[in-house]
Amino acid sequence: MRTTSRVLASLCIAMSIVLAGLAGPIALSADASTRSAEVMQVVAKQKGKPYKYGAAGPKAFDCSGLVQYVYKKAGKKIGRTSGAQLGGRHIAKGKKQKGDIMIFINSSGAYHSAIYAGGGKMWEAQRSGTRVGVHKIWSSGYVVRRP
Question: Annotated catalytic, 12?
């Protein structure tokens, strides 16, 4: 009788652990999906605004200022510069999703950031004389972060 009770107790504990494990990622996935949708809605509203070095919105943006502004409006605090935006969770390039941050890097460090738009494109405030918009990914020298 005592052995049966122990086995049943062990099974209950094991099932609790399994069920808790299943619930955790599902909840995180839903949260990440919701944030991604919010990020994409906010960044789309910035379309056409001018690039201005050092600007962090809402009337003009530089690259990292756009990314920070969009994430702040979507409820997530991130760093101001491209280098500071490296702090998120690393995502493999092949697993990037809409709303992920793309940070371009060269031998000197991080120099540009953008938001993945899907389909080989990204939302960015590219350079002087351009406006916020969706552009093709123009370099493979980037890493992906998800705050």
Answer: no
